[in-house]
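Please fill in the sequence for the structure shown.

STRUCTURE ENCODING:
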């Protein structure tokens, strides 16, 4: 009996000693980590990071990524991160081969490859043409006048000097008068045939198509393919007016007054080429005018009609009004190919267009750029053709495209998917040409968005060290670009979050914290 008691006491003491060693003494591996490289303690389901003072900047970044990736708000979501040197050495990665929806970070693929293939000095050329003959005695064009599109997204845009609608039309009127004619016995025809007739890329949601950010590309675009809607809130039922004369457009008013709405909004519900649309939205009551925007149903027709009205105003009658080559085909009318070009409108340089596209995240421009890749590399302007050019580029640069799914150029489609590593690989490929890279780098905004830095980024090295493109849509947030370390090394990074339960601001704050840590790398 005494032996049993002694054995029990010995075992109990041993177990007590074992428990004390677990709680109060580090393991050999932990001791090694504490002496050789600092331990990063990560607390699950929180964004606070406990780091010893001697932790390196790279270890701090790794700890923050692990903390974010295992937080409660990403428990049911997905997060991918990749950081690489120019040599392709992966410095930090988390879930970097997971295909994720990129949103507007995809524009880095479209715009960079467009610069590479077409060159920063490339310009679009929109041509005025005519068929038939000019009767110099009667000063009459016995034929049709054409506006031959080239895919230029800036035609009629107020963003670039000399590209606004009034300037373009004034130049065209002068060029037509220089032909020595004062009447046209034909029609003004908009020719958008360089691009597919299908304006909307695959996978765009119906609600995106009704918004001013969901504007599709066209071979003959004008006024960025949008028209302005003025809404007077000082009435029981808000009144509206359309600023630009859109031919055949019929809007049915369903705008309501809602004083609790956080932001006034208005949109016209309807698909491409559909002239009957439902005007929806909500505005607060008050003595003011709100201006919204919506997609022009038929951009080429609007462009031709605008020139027709301008000719009429300048005393040059057009017998057959305005139409488009698409409309003529629908009516089985023959489209004459034998034409004489007499005036060319050139766009700003491609580098300027891409700067604007990336700086303000212009979806409409990005979609035109992708189809332009197809047009000027494959001979036809389509979205799938542009995607094929992108895939060809990836193959040329030994970029693995497994898990890479691209269906538009802007990232609006939720069918798009790309891995963090693939974004990094594409961005790194641009660095092979220093001239092109410098142009592309300068198109990227600080911290992914224009304007002032956020409170998190203010006072940090982000403004000096980081240039990147951001992307956002419901439950999607992403950033992809470049960071210059304190020692002058350039690194490439991408971070994508999908289906998170943070608020939009909360998720952005978490990713901006990572950018602050990126900017502090040695």
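FILLED IN BY: designer on duty
SEQUENCE:
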């Amino acid at each position: 009996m005494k032996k049993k008691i002694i054995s029990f006491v010995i075992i109990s003491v041993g177990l007590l000693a074992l428990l004390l060693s677990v709680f109060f003494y580090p393991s050999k591996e932990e001791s090694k980590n504490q002496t050789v490289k600092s331990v990063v303690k990560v607390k699950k389901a929180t964004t606070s990071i406990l780091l010893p003072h001697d932790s390196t900047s790279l270890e701090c970044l790794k700890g923050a990524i692990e903390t974010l990736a295992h937080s409660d708000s990403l428990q049911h979501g997905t997060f991918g991160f990749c950081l690489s040197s120019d040599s392709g050495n992966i410095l930090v990665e988390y879930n970097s081969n997971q295909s994720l929806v990129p949103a507007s970070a995809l524009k880095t693929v479209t715009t960079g490859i467009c610069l590479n293939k077409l060159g920063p000095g490339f310009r679009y050329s929109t041509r005025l043409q005519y068929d038939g003959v000019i009767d110099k005695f009667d000063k009459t064009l016995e034929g049709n006048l054409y506006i031959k599109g080239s895919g230029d997204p800036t035609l009629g845009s107020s963003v670039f000097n000399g590209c606004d609608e009034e300037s373009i039309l004034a130049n065209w009127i002068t060029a037509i008068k220089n032909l020595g004619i004062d009447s046209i016995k034909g029609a003004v025809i908009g020719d958008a045939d360089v691009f597919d007739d299908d304006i909307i890329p695959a996978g765009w949601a119906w609600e995106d198509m009704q918004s001013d950010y969901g504007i599709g590309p066209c071979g003959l675009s004008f006024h960025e393919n949008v028209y302005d809607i003025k809404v007077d809130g000082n009435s029981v039922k808000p009144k509206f007016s359309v600023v630009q004369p859109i031919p055949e457009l019929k809007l049915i008013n369903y705008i309501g007054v809602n004083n609790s709405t956080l932001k006034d909004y208005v949109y016209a519900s309807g698909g491409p080429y559909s002239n009957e649309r439902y005007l929806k939205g909500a505005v607060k009551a008050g003595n003011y005018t709100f201006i919204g925007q919506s997609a022009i149903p038929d951009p080429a027709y609007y462009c031709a009609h605008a020139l027709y009205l301008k000719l009429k105003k300048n005393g040059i009658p057009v017998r057959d009004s305005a139409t488009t080559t698409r409309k003529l085909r629908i009516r089985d009318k023959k489209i004459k190919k034998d034409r004489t070009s007499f005036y060319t409108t050139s766009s700003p340089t491609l580098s300027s267009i891409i700067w604007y596209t990336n700086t303000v995240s212009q979806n409409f421009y990005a979609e035109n750029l992708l189809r332009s890749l197809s047009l000027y590399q494959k001979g036809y302007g389509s979205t799938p053709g542009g995607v094929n050019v992108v895939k060809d580029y990836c193959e040329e640069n030994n970029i693995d495209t497994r898990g890479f799914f691209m269906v538009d150029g802007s990232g609006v489609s939720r069918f798009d998917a790309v891995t963090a590593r693939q974004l990094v690989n594409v961005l790194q490929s641009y660095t092979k040409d220093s001239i092109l890279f410098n142009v592309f780098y300068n198109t990227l905004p600080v911290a992914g968005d224009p304007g002032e830095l956020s409170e998190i980024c203010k006072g940090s090295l982000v403004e000096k060290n980081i240039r990147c493109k951001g992307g956002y849509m419901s439950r999607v947030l992403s950033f992809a670009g470049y960071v210059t370390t304190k020692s002058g090394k350039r690194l490439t990074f991408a971070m994508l979050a999908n289906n998170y339960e943070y608020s939009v601001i909360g998720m952005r704050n978490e990713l901006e914290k990572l950018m602050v840590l990126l900017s502090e790398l040695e």
